[in-house]
Amino acid sequence: MFFERPESGEKAILVHIKLASLDANDNPKELEELALSAGADPVEWLMGSRSDPSPKFFLGKGKVQELHDLVRLHEADIVIFNHALSPAQERNLEREIECRVLDRTGLILDIFAQRARTHEGKLQVELAQLEHMSTRLIRGWTHLERQKGGIGLRGPGETQLETDRRLLRARIKAITARLEKVRKQREQGRRARSRAEIPTLSLVGYTNAGKSTLFNRITEADVYAADQLFATLDPTLRRLDLRDIGPTILADTVGFIRDLPHKLVESFRATLQETIEATLLLHVIDAGDEERREHIHQVGKVLHEIGADEVPMLEVYNKIDRLEGVEPHIDRDDTGVAIRVWLSAQTGEGIDLLLQALRERLAVDMFHQYIDLNPDQGQFRAQLYAQNAVLNEEVGDDGRIKLEVRMQIKDLRQTLSRLNIPAERYIASPVQDW
């Protein structure tokens, strides 16, 4: 189902039913964008409303017949639902309309399968697909007898199904073990960065908000970026040197979406760990999107699900080049802390303001003040100069030296420790334990 693709786009009927029991803000247009991203050719919509989905078909009998007629009229290859369907609903619908049926979860999984490039990404997608497919195996063996167990009653269908399920379980177990190895490797990298106290910035946001374009603009990288959903799937890490801060790590991650399949969240947990343990999240938002508020809410839901909702965040309102009368600027809270930056990653407008805001947000552990040195503390003075930490120097008549010093507190602590100088002599209120 996921691995064979026709050369031309499959004709697709899109189905969106407004349910009173579900979120009223769901957007049918997003399903069309997902279908186009998957390579489908949407030819018709079937829309309606119900109080609750039908257990058998999700739709009512009248809508099922209407869907059957649309499939015949357009000679459609596939019907895509903007909802999650149970395996039984998929089977029943396919039997009635005589056409392949795919729900929203299956569609997103298919897009992920197309986008995965790295070995890790392919493993994660395959794991999510296999877990999703395991409940739907029976569809492939409807032409065989599927009698329930019992001596003399074991049909060939059941035998084949059991074989397939056993193979699936073995494959899932193998992939899970390999991803656990990847997780441990990533954990080692994070611990190494933590020991070096290198800040990590993680780009998050709704899919197609412009994260990869911003990533490329800041780091001068060449990450694939396109105006489509889930253009980026595999995580990318790049070093970013910020003035006064030093080296930082910037991580580009997969975009979030409404009702992101839970199996995907679980499968990509090793990747999303970069987000959970980030020093600062950069929440990239499409400033001109009419669904902006809903998308912000959905990103918040996913961050909560993966346990990253407590990580400090800086909002980045992107694509202001598509808006009239909006200039690059920084929004601040009542205490003067930068909380929002307006820019265009495409044109580069406002990137300097973003870097300024990053320096401010990461500089909470900066030491910037005057210190007095005795004439015999030349080694300490030399160490400060070697780290480009001295902004100004004054020498008094008595030979004492007054230095204006700006550097990260962690670096100052390390320097003081090497010289056996008590940190309390210069750092009155330690920011972090040493």
Compile the SSE list and pairings:
Elements: E1 11-19, H1 28-38, E2 41-50, H2 61-74, E3 78-81, H3 87-97, E4 100-102, H4 104-115, H5 119-133, H6 156-195, E5 200-205, H7 211-219, E6 236-242, E7 246-252, H8 262-267, H9 269-276, E8 280-286, H10 292-306, E9 313-318, E10 329-332, E11 338-342, H11 351-362, E12 366-373, H12 378-386, E13 390-395, E14 401-408, H13 409-418
Parallel strand pairs: 1-2, 1-3, 3-4, 5-7, 5-8, 8-9, 9-11
Antiparallel strand pairs: 6-7, 10-11, 12-14, 13-14
Please summarize what this structure is.
The protein is α/β, with parallel strands linked by helices. Helix content is 40%, strand content 21%. It has helices spanning 28-38, 61-74, 87-97, 104-115, 119-133, 156-195, 211-219, 262-267, 269-276, 292-306, 351-362, 378-386, 409-418, and strands at 11-19, 41-50, 78-81, 100-102, 200-205, 236-242, 246-252, 280-286, 313-318, 329-332, 338-342, 366-373, 390-395, 401-408.
Features:
alpha/beta, 7-stranded mixed beta sheet, 4-stranded parallel beta sheet, 14 strands, disordered N terminus, 434 residues
Give an overview in words.
By secondary structure, this protein is α/β, with parallel strands linked by helices. The protein contains 13 helices and 14 strands. Strands 6-7-5-8-9-11-10 form a seven-stranded mixed sheet, with helices on both faces. Strands 2-1-3-4 form a four-stranded parallel sheet, with helices on both faces. Helix 5 runs antiparallel to helix 6. The longest helix is centred in the middle third of the chain and has 40 residues, at 156-195. The protein is elongated, with a radius of gyration of 28 Å. The relative contact order is 0.08. The model is unreliable at 1-7, 139-155 and 429-434 (pLDDT under 50).
